[in-house]
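Person: I have long wanted to understand how a fold can be written as tokens. Underneath my words sits a plain record pairing an amino acid chain with its backbone structure tokens. Those tokens are not coordinates but codes from a learned vocabulary of shapes. I should like you to check that the lines agree and flag anything odd. The protein I mean follows directly.
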Amino acid sequence: MDPQRLRKAPNIAIVGSTSLLGKELQEMLEDRALPIGRLALLETEEYAGLLQEFAGEIQITQVISPDTFDDIDIAFFSCGPEIMQAYVASGAKFPDLTIDLTHAGLDGTVYLNGVSSPRLLRSHGYFVNPHPATIVIGRLLAHLQRSFTVQSAAVTILEPASERGKVGVDELQEQTVGLLNFQQVEKKVFGGQLAFNVLLEPDVEARTERRVMSQLETILGPAYPKPAINAVQVSVFHSHVFSVFLNIAAGAEELAAHFAKNPDFEVHDTPEGPSPVGVVGSDKIHLARLRPVVGGYAFWAVADNLRIAASNAIQTAEHIMLAPALEA
């Protein structure tokens, strides 16, 4: 890593550049006009030599290897869990500044922009980007706790197919087309028919629930009331949906006004409200149907899982770049 170049125009690598998250990272880097010296798009041998466009220029996809990181200042790992696990098992060295979006790599510093302390940031380090559901729940609870007392919370996470990567999206699409043509559905990624259906998938969802709970405890601290979390796989391609219950000392109008003042949130008061399709491309948390119920308040939250994850990862990199004289 070159410390001076890191501040001005770092060389950046995206591992898993053809994944859904990898493409989202590229799009956001281009949209935000982040100064970049060189961009390396890395993949497995299967995709070596693939041509991709970034900022009007053609990039050639390279094969992942330790040598490809020699001149890299920031590396985003957005590949599938199998690729990340294979890289870890190989014993190969990670770049000096790594941001892991896979949740399948090493233990590192979990950092949630706007909630975690900036003192956690270093110019050298292995940073774990939180699960997109952790980002949403963490921001919701941390934001409320600054002004109110949250006594308890319960969240149902409706998970989209894109949380399983491109293979999950492809299988949902194939199942949908197959059923409409009266054909047998393939079940390679999901444990059953997901199209026009809801799946519990206890083992998979239990891992998600444990990961989100563990990351929330790291981000918010052990003293914070732990929310009850239940994850369910739904027949949606993109975007998380959350059904949230809060036991909190506040009024409904106070809560709505509090959220409306923060740029991380968008409060909808129209009858149709936000939807998984409608929030695609937004890095905000969209809220609706905030209403009193027995014992507290309930509301609906929707967020683009890919966009919100990529946004947090890029913001983490930006803060490291712009922070004055961070320690190594």
